[in-house]
Amino acid sequence: QVKLVESGGGLVQAGGSLRLSCTVSGLVFDDYAMAWFRQAPGKEREGVSCITWNSLRLYYQSSVKGRFTVSRSNTNNTMYLQMDSLKAEDTAMYYCAAAAPGHSKSECPFEPETFLSNLYGYWGQGTQVTVSS
Fold first, then answer.
1. Region 60-71: what's the mean pLDDT?
2. CA–CA dist 59, 125 (Å, integer)
3. What CA dihedral angle connects 67, 89, 45 and 93, to 10 degrees?
């Protein structure tokens, strides 16, 4: 059974930092590109970042570039999202996802499809991030 478990969310003041983790079991982690998505109340889910299986290519939504850093440890089956200079508009439930099984599952979908939800086959339950202004 494939399982993705996010952790590290919480309440932080604007300008602060948080580090999210996503631990994966039930699949060969280093076969898959991984991504972070988020969903704020009343808004659609949006992609935040994607990292290829070997960490050689990283993708970011424009609003988080320069503030968020995605990384992964294939040894520990874990992906991370370091979030710095947090803003109130970063408040959301954050989800990790693994690329859908297929011949290109180890690569992030090419732009502009990088953050199409239906290209990701496995999802976690989410961790809440709240940034107070």
1. 98
2. 22
3. 90
Which residues lie closer than 8 Å to 132 by C-beta, 6 or more apart?
11, 12, 13, 14, 88
3-state secondary structure of 72: strand
Tell me which amino acid residue 84 is.
D
Collapsing DSSP to helix, strand or coil, 80 comes out as strand
In the predicted model, what is the mean pLDDT of residues 49-76? 97
Contact (Cβ atoms closer than 8 angstroms) between residue 9 and residue 18: yes
pLDDT band at 102 (very low <50, low <70, confident <90, very high): confident
Residue linked to tokens 């983790």: 21
Q: What is the pLDDT of residues 2-49, one digit of tens each?
A: 999 999 999 999 999 999 999 999 999 999 999 999 999 999 999 999
Q: In the structure encoding, which two tokens stand for residue 110, read together?
A: 């090419």
Token pair belonging to 10: 């919480």
Pair type for strands 46-51 and 58-60: antiparallel
Single-letter residue type at 93: M
Count CB atoms within 10 A of the CB of residue 60.
Answer: 20
Q: What is the mean pLDDT of the chain?
A: 96
